[in-house]
Amino acid sequence: MSGIRVGIIMGSQSDWPTMQEAAEILDELQVEHEVRIVSAHRTPDRLWEYGKTAVERGLQVIIAGAGGAAHLPGMMASKTRVPVIGVPVQTRALNGVDSLYSILQMPRGFPVATMAIGAAGARNAGLMAAGILALQDAALADRLDAWRAALSASIPETPARDG
Ligand code: RP5
């Protein structure tokens, strides 16, 4: 079993500018992860294989991003009990509301933890994954606490009023 605990998957190369936010924060928090293109529609066999082997490969969280008819997170949740965090990628036609609804409205029994549309959602997916792993990993918990404290400390108490 490898040390990789988080899988970041996305429906297309075009999702990478959004999904790299998840990879970046996991890098920053020193969480080993893998990144793959897995499309519910274009590579269904790859999706099935990924879901079928997720537990035995030691994955503990899967972050899945897709846009439009965004079936990837839900289909992955139907194939593995590894928790799936869904990221709705922003689309041109419907601004990502299509992605959001596609990911959010899962039937009872197969949950996907759905984030916000776009880059903030991807960043939060990485943080959510780190928070889940930190429950069993004291060193990661310390790094995540420090990251959160630094973010809070960076917020000024009064707004700049020039300009
Ligand atoms: C989805 O279709 C992907 O997740 C992507 O967000 C969207 C468009 O894909 P491309 O046509 O850019 O490859 O499956």
From TrEMBL:
Gene3D superfamilies: 3.40.50.1970
Residues annotated as domain PurE: 4-155
Catalytic activity: 5-carboxyamino-1-(5-phospho-D-ribosyl)imidazole + H(+) = 5-amino-1-(5-phospho-D-ribosyl)imidazole-4-carboxylate
Transmembrane helix is among the record's keywords: no
Pathway it works in: Purine metabolism; IMP biosynthesis via de novo pathway; 5-amino-1-(5-phospho-D-ribosyl)imidazole-4-carboxylate from 5-amino-1-(5-phospho-D-ribosyl)imidazole (N5-CAIR route): step 2/2
Name of a matching Pfam family: AIRC
Domain of life (superkingdom): Bacteria
Broad class of enzyme this protein falls into: isomerase
Record: residues binding substrate: 12, 15, 42
Keywords carried by this UniProt record: Isomerase, Purine biosynthesis
GO MF term list: 5-(carboxyamino)imidazole ribonucleotide mutase activity
Alphabetized SMART domains for the sequence: AIRC
SUPFAM superfamilies on file: N5-CAIR mutase (phosphoribosylaminoimidazole carboxylase, PurE)
GO biological processes: 'de novo' IMP biosynthetic process
Enzyme Commission number(s): 5.4.99.18
Described purpose of this protein according to its UniProt entry: Catalyzes the conversion of N5-carboxyaminoimidazole ribonucleotide (N5-CAIR) to 4-carboxy-5-aminoimidazole ribonucleotide (CAIR).
Family affiliation: Belongs to the AIR carboxylase family. Class I subfamily.
Protein name (Swiss-Prot/TrEMBL): N5-carboxyaminoimidazole ribonucleotide mutase
